């Protein structure tokens, strides 16, 4: 069992990725009460844009890490402004259906343009090297993913709890109508939040590319895990997303080590147990 | 009373038309029609959730696929199993699965329900893929269609037209039962729950139990459709239990329209015929389906049946129900 630390680190890397995807999802859900099925499709777009940018231009991941979130922010904001807002009057089901349809279209477009097969993305420079930790040799890139997640998580926490914008955002989660009455342009805030969620998942897509490779099924694969994360952590709870990402990431990783055939079922088992004991999730508020 | 008689006449005419089809259609068209009828039950059961109860499920394919796989596994492992027993075994398995999953989910609604059903569908898909010794994994399972045993006689249903008649009767009866269900007290309860659940609770209804019954019922119908699907193609692959299958039924139901009982059946016709002809022309037909779907969500939320209902109202001169179609809460004077 000398490889337990290795699997632990693998779990951390995947947990980092999961957190990047699910934090945007849970933020949008908490604020707008929209479960964005297209979230993982944005993640996939991030990965594919990154592939093209790296292929055409520098071969470096740094440029993609800056450009892709920007592109996805614009796509997300436009989606909210011109599509989601239109169906808002028709209720939540229409919003769910719209984001689901968008995810479907994006997946088909990706298959059309980039092809229905995996594309390998390679990192260069010090990210492709390995490092010695606790007596084991470990790739730098996976540690880099975990550090990225910590960095993004800290920045989000700072914005939410230490700035005026954060106060508006948290107030809008509780009661968007009152915030609107107080003179804040809530539709604009929603547009920004949706765009930010898309940018986050685009960022996650960029760094997922070299780890998991880029393929048209990647959206669905991460979407299920991200959903399990927000069910376990509690809907709309950022702290819950942190804990649940770590739990699921480690469970996935050690599941592969201990029960190779049952690793997927383990994650669902955790979800079912949480659903039975506390249906609102570990950190979720009780639903009415 | 007159309206009811009209419906009965309509049903009889539809069955007679259906019975004539083997003499009119070509062989491959009849095959397609058999598939349409089977998928129609799948779509109608889905619409009982989406249109009637307002529950958006992303996991209906788990029941469809479960019925399909259980029927296939039963035929392979049980010697001399008749065709109806295979269907009944598939049906029974989905009743149990629907009840178990439903009891986990019944407290959740809206986005929570959508997300959890999707997660369970993913679990079923993962199990079907990994459990290679039973489900055949990526290769799927091939079966040969058993005989139909009516007790007094055994009939072979290996020909296209005889199987078509069997499906017409079995699935037709199931769809009729769904139609009947929407007129029962239980069916009305489901509608009223969608409109105002709090009030139903005040009136003493246990809405969780009603939702559980509906979920199990629709799941079992999907399982029935799945079992027939296996028998039709004499093959079942993991695509039958995949999320794509859920997506397909969602597109069909929504394109046809969720606000009428027959809308989803129309949607199945459009979808499958579209699929068969468009896939010859272009590989990108799912993209077109997706674009049509999003267009409809944005501009025609009632699906194809919305303009049809509007036209019908023009002709009948009624302007009372604003295109809501039959799925609306009727004011009763009791």
Series of secondary-structure elements of chain B, N-terminal to C-terminal:
HHHHHHEEEHHHHEHHHH
| CATH topology type of chain B | ABC transporter involved in vitamin B12 uptake, BtuC
Using DSSP, what is the number of strands of chain A? 2
Strand order, largest beta sheet of chain A: 1-2
Overall geometry of chain A = globular
**What's the CATH architecture name of chain A?**
Orthogonal Bundle
Fraction of residues of chain A in helices?
A: over 70%
Count interface residues per chain for the largest interface.
A-B, 40 and 35 residues
Distance between the termini of chain B: 18 Å
Oligomer: heterodimer
Count of the domains of chain A: 1
The secondary-structure class of chain B comes to: mainly alpha
Q: What CATH architecture of chain B would you give?
A: Orthogonal Bundle
For the record, the CATH class of chain A is Mainly Alpha
Q: Compute the CA-based radius of gyration of chain B.
A: 20 Å
Unreliably modeled segments of chain A: none
Describe the structure.
The complex is a heterodimer of chains A (288) and B (334). Chain A is 75% helix and 3% strand. Chain A has 288 residues and is mainly alpha-helical. Chain A has a single domain (4-277), classed as ABC transporter involved in vitamin B12 uptake, BtuC, CATH 1.10.3470. In chain A, β1 and β2 form a beta hairpin. In chain A, α9 (218-233) packs across α10, α9 packs parallel to α11 (263-277) and α10 packs across α11 (263-277). With 334 residues, chain B is mostly helical. Chain B has a single domain, classed as ABC transporter involved in vitamin B12 uptake, BtuC. Chain B has a two-stranded antiparallel sheet with strand order 1-4. In chain B, strands 2-3 form a two-stranded antiparallel sheet. The longest helix of chain B has 27 residues, at 207-233. Residues 321-326 of chain B have low confidence and may be disordered. Chain A binds chain B through residues 29, 33-35, 83, 86-87, 90, 92-94, 96-98, 100-102, 104-105, 108-109, 112, 220, 223-224, 227-228, 230-231, 235, 261, 264-265, 268, 271-272, 275-276, 279, 287, and chain B through 50, 54, 56, 58, 104, 107-108, 110-112, 114-116, 118-120, 122-123, 126-127, 130, 243, 247, 250, 254, 284, 286-287, 290-291, 293-294, 297-298, 301.
